[in-house]
Design brief:
The chain is of the alpha+beta class. The protein folds into 2 domains: about 80 residues, Phosphorylase Kinase, domain 1 (2-Layer Sandwich), CATH 3.30.200.20; about 190 residues, Aminoglycoside 3'-phosphotransferase, Chain: A, domain 2, CATH 3.90.1200.10. It contains 10 helices and 10 strands. The strands form 3 sheets. The protein has a 5-stranded antiparallel beta sheet, sandwiched between helices. α4 crosses α8. The chain starts with a helix and ends with a helix.
Length: about 280
């Protein structure tokens, strides 16, 4: 009875749920089967940063992301990427260039859709996200004021002359890109934010693991940005500046949530001398 909100749509959609429910800070997830296919039944927390994930996935329409099979009253039935190997595995195996190329392909697929006004109006913008830096002062002594000031200035500088605005995934890092035997690499768990495409790369530059040696090193950052800009025709300095500002913003969010901000700070500090 505890998970009736999930069991009811599962029955309605002819889905047999298997195993225990997976509960994250942002959603509840069940895995199951429908018509011989593996599926995911997901209910995002309406107060979390995944509250708009259904609308984002519907906008992407399966281009670069998992498809929505059914949805109703906050619940959604998604195709499941099988075997679901994360892009992180390529990096850990020493194939960082290949992983970055996959990231580029997924970005291109996600951003191929034009942004309609009715879609744009329901999502935050990167300006909205950047404004949260202005509400943060001393970071309880954790985040240096100089980083906050520089990141705030970068957001203000880049937010004006943006390229074409798209609906971005908003959290497109290696753990959120999975391999599917039928469709190849697809994204999961979008947050949804409106802005220029170059902003999308920041999350990947502070991943894929908790070890800064795998991402917060100048040679790695430079190599990744070179691949991204060659394949997607982005301005390298815009990608670099956005990634710096997002690293600081990520640290701010994590401090606010009572979590360790080291990943974002390590990335921001690694990029700062490159600006």
């Amino acid at each position: 009875m505890q998970y009736d909100p999930l069991q009811s749509p599962a029955r309605r959609w002819g889905t047999v749920l298997t195993g225990a429910v997976y509960e994250s800070p942002t959603s509840r997830v069940f895995f199951g089967r429908r018509g011989g296919s593996d599926v995911v039944l997901k209910v995002p927390d309406p107060d979390s940063d995944e509250a708009n994930s259904l609308a984002a996935l519907l906008h992407f329409g399966g281009s670069g992301a998992v498809r929505v099979l059914e949805h109703d009253a906050g619940a959604m039935l998604l195709e499941r990427a099988m075997p679901g190997r994360p892009l992180t595995d390529l990096v850990v195996a020493g194939r960082d260039d290949d992983a970055t190329a996959v990231l580029c392909d997924v970005v291109a697929a996600l951003h191929c859709c034009d942004l309609r006004n009715d879609v744009a109006n329901r999502f935050p913008t990167i300006e909205d996200w950047g404004s949260e830096l202005q509400c943060y002062r001393d970071g309880a002594g954790i985040i240096p004021a100089g980083l906050i000031e520089r990141a705030t200035a970068v957001f203000a500088e880049l937010a004006g002359p943006q390229g074409p605005r798209r609906l971005l995934h908003g959290d497109l890092h290696h753990h959120n890109i999975l391999f599917d035997d039928r469709r190849g690499w697809v994204a999961i768990d979008p947050k949804g934010v409106v802005g220029e495409s170059a902003y999308e790369i920041g999350a990947a530059l502070r991943n894929p693991t908790s070890d800064p040696a795998r991402f917060a090193a100048r040679p790695i950052i430079e190599r990744r940005i070179a691949i991204v800009c060659e394949r997607l025709n982005f301005d390298p300095m815009r990608v670099l500046h956005w990634a710096f500002a997002q690293g600081v913003l990520s640290a701010v969010w994590r401090v606010a949530d009572g979590r360790d901000p080291e990943r974002g700070l390590a990335t921001a500090n690694a990029i700062l001398p490159m600006l």
